[in-house]
Fold each of these.
Amino acid sequence: MEASHAPTLHTANVSRRTTMNRVFAVVYAMAIMALLYRHALTLHLHSTTVSSFFIYLCLLISDLVLAFMWTMLQSIRMRPVYRKEFPENIKKLVRESEFPALDVFICTADPYKEPPMRVVNTALSVMAYDYPTEKVSLYVSDDGGSAPTLFALMEAAKFASHWLPFCRKNNVAERCPDAYFAANHFSSSSDSETHKIKILYESMKVKVENVVERGKVGEEYIVHERDLQAFSKWNTPEFTRHEHPTVIQVILDSSRDKDITGHVMPNLIYVSREKSRTSSHHFKAGALNVLLRVSAAMTNAPVVLTLDCDMYSNDPQTPLRVLCYLSDKNLRPELGYVQFPQRFPGINKNDIYACEVKNIFQITAVGMDGLAGPSYYGTGCLFSRRVFCCGPSAFVPPEIPRLHPESVVEKPIQSPEVLKLAHNVAGYNYEKQTHWGFKIGMRYGSLVEDYFTGYRLQCEGWNSIFCNPERAAFYGDAPISLVDVLNQHKRWAIGLHEVALSKYCPVTYGTQAMGPPMGFAYGYYAFSSTLLIPITVYAFLPQLALFNGITIFPKVSDPWFLLYAFLFVGAYGQDLLDFLVHGGTVQRWWNDQRMWLIRGLSCFWFGSTEYFLKSLGIYTHGFNVTSKVLDDEQRKRYEQEVFEFGVQSPMFVPLTVAAFANFGAFFGGILGVFRGSNDLEELLVQIFIAGFGMLNSWPVYHGLLMRGDKGGVPIKITLISMVLAFFVTLAFSFFCEFSLS
Ligand SMILES: O=c1ccn([C@@H]2O[C@H](COP(=O)(O)OP(=O)(O)O[C@H]3O[C@H](CO)[C@@H](O)[C@H](O)[C@H]3O)[C@@H](O)[C@H]2O)c(=O)[nH]1
Ligand SMILES: [Mn+2]
């Protein structure tokens, strides 16, 4: 009766580090002021030559960028919040018949980079949610337009009729079959039921992989007339992945299909939107908008879950957990979405490529959760469908009343009217002259459509929640080779540029719409590529100066030295602390900061360049899908925690040049000290920086020395880098000599 007796659905605790963070921010800010003052002094008093002016100016600009980024980063340290949910209580408060229906979207784009068995496992893990089955609908978007993917899903549907009752009956925790069978639940003592289901799974897998390998669905695999009709669409030569009509196939219909125990099955719908070479499809954002409309036409559930094909559900209770927030009307009236972190079980022990991306998926997430809520991470996010129709108090209806978020679908999903509308809204011409991608739906204009969409939704006034249960709600795949990681980050860098330099720049537009803390939190990521300036300057300038015996930092006995030491140790120490508090290890943190430097020298440069080439109309970039195929040999090297260079990527060049430069400067500088031409006290800071650079370049040295191995630095990259390192050093020496005389 009284609200106070109601069982708790969720709690939130503000971090105990909040006060400490704020005090430290004030102290650190003062140190930054002092540093800028010193820069002004040096530039004024000591830049007597062109070269020294150039050096001090570079250092000043670098430190200004660092100070700017530091300022924005503070927003996420002001009020981190940790939440907990109690899904066991939800059924005490909300009757099961009142649970909202759930539409799940799964995106896939390429059957060779994203094996259909991976998609199948994701789909099965969600179909087996502990949630009223008739309320769950799955929509798989296939941008690869691939018949084998459709085939795989049809096979998955058959397998599901065994798998879902099996999970229910045995209360299986891992509902992703691959994860379940890999977890070694049964060795010798495996009972016959488990054994049978495993055989069923294996035979499906063999069939699907066979079809994928052949690239088409052989007639021997098609049993039903209905399936024959579906696959006949691929039988025309005009059907290619870039040019084809819409394919919508209802694989499971909950009003009709039952599992082997007679229980209903969820809806399962395959969607491959219409494609044409002449119009733009907006990559994943476009795919999701098609799913938003197709699902509105067919089921129009008020809650929508978006997943990438490589993110399977690891916890069948997840929808109940989300209901704890969605059903609490007092929490945040403008609650738009609940985001889960991306977690990756396959990363190696010390996470050499920092694929955990802890800074984004955990530290920033709890930081923003204490403000207006986290950004959208593209996958593992449950939305209220209403958010896609503009702000909480500024409703922009979709152009067709039947797509209205509150409209109720009364016709069965396979009725001609419903199918006709679904096909209509999946066409590439449909969005012309509509608000899709600009005012409603997922937002276009950035390769990080997730970040951009979350940002725009929050600017419109929606709030979000970060939900980070102990048992991961979703598990995904992270890239396991360096070039894949760098390409992924390069794509993100391009996408972030597209936001930073648009009229929606978080620092201007965002701070106006949401206030400075949220604007800065988004701004930190939007402007992350500017870090290429300080990272590059600190990777080369002190080293080149050291090589030439030029002192550019205060000597150890100078009181200013303490300021530098404090700034360095303070920033690194706080970063380490944040990392450890969120379950990291020192080793992982070291690798994370190393990847940050590596990205600064590669992804940020190449991403920025590609962005500018594109804005000049010289070059177009697309969404380069990350490969999820796991090569055994590669995985073995990855497990040994050895960096994988192997391919001739230009992004390795700056890393290799930096490795040479730091090596040369470090030993050159020390040699100078022994010879007596260098003063140790004056050059200690630079020797330290070069040493630090060398420590961070360790994987590159290793890659240079094991060139025989497939993962070594290719000889061409080595030679180019050597020549470059040589010329840069020479040019710098000339520059100094020339301007001194
Ligand atoms: O034209 C496209 C391109 C991609 N995708 C899908 O987008 C997803 C993400 O692609 P992936 O190559 O795995 O990119 P990641 O870098 O791993 O993804 C991160 O970054 C993306 C933005 O760049 C977000 O969309 C993702 O959710 C986020 O996990 C995959 O399911 C793809 O199938 C499409 O559906 N259509
Ligand atoms: Mn991915």
Note: The chain has a mean pLDDT of 94.
Amino acid sequence: MAGAMLDRWLAAGLDPARVAVVDPAATPRDGVALHASLADWAAAGGTADWVMLGMKPQQLGEVASDLAPLATDGVHLLSILAGVSLADLAERFPQARAQVRILPNLAVRIGAGVSAVARLGDADGDAVAALLAPLGQTVELADDAAMDLVTAFTGSGPAFVFRLIEAYAAAGERLGLSPDEALRLAAATFGGATALLADSGEKPGALAAKVASKGGMTQVGLDILDTDGQLVALMTNVLRAARDRGRELADIARGQG
Ligand SMILES: NC(=O)C1=CN([C@@H]2O[C@H](COP(=O)(O)OP(=O)(O)OC[C@H]3O[C@@H](n4cnc5c(N)ncnc54)[C@H](O)[C@@H]3O)[C@@H](O)[C@H]2O)C=CC1
Ligand SMILES: O=C(O)[C@@H]1CCC=N1
């Protein structure tokens, strides 16, 4: 995820000489300094005003103990770690100027992502907004407590949408389309529908009603989707499970180091 953000920032004009990546397994990028560990970065004289955590939440303990002494007064400490709250970050990095929790999604790679943001401390809000602007839309959350649900909703969201597209394509295959036709047509249908939704400003229900001719084909399909609210119940279960896993990850991260 952090690599997708970096690729977008570089494509949007960020000077690679201003970036250092600390990751034992990162893909090298032209002009970007790469260090296998924080010790290597420190030995190379590394300093930073902005530090972003991009490893798994389960690795917070091993990283925080080495990083906290380097994240002092002037440093904005950014985190994309699912589940890890602002309070957790403040506890791990108490001397940082600000703790900023960002939950992006994979579409940032093409500047079409959604990043939810919550912050603590003396954060430079304009600078945070400017940093995130090339990634797509940004939503500021006043309450960090909403972040786990939003992480499931927009962070995990693309994966859920990809599954829906796969299911649509698989159904098309079952009913006679070739695999290639089914996937191409499914992707074009989802892409076109979401673009129309964004462009028209209309509600999805109103657009669905425009597609469904009275007494025609679409309505019989919609009637199946709408039966007993089963689709909403399914999506609620999906999002609840993902949200609750975020809380578990936070507990795991909290129990470390
Ligand atoms: N994948 C996604 O769509 C999203 C991911 N996130 C968050 O982004 C974070 C990373 O997730 P992914 O990119 O999916 O995982 P990933 O496994 O692709 O990337 C994690 C990276 O951390 C590196 N790493 C491991 N230990 C390290 C250490 N001690 N020091 C420095 N780097 C270390 C790994 O080499 C790897 O490159 C997670 O905290 C996740 O919650 C947040 C929103 C969306
Ligand atoms: O699956 C995960 O835990 C992360 C958080 C949101 C998307 N990927």
Note: The longest helix spans residues 230-254.
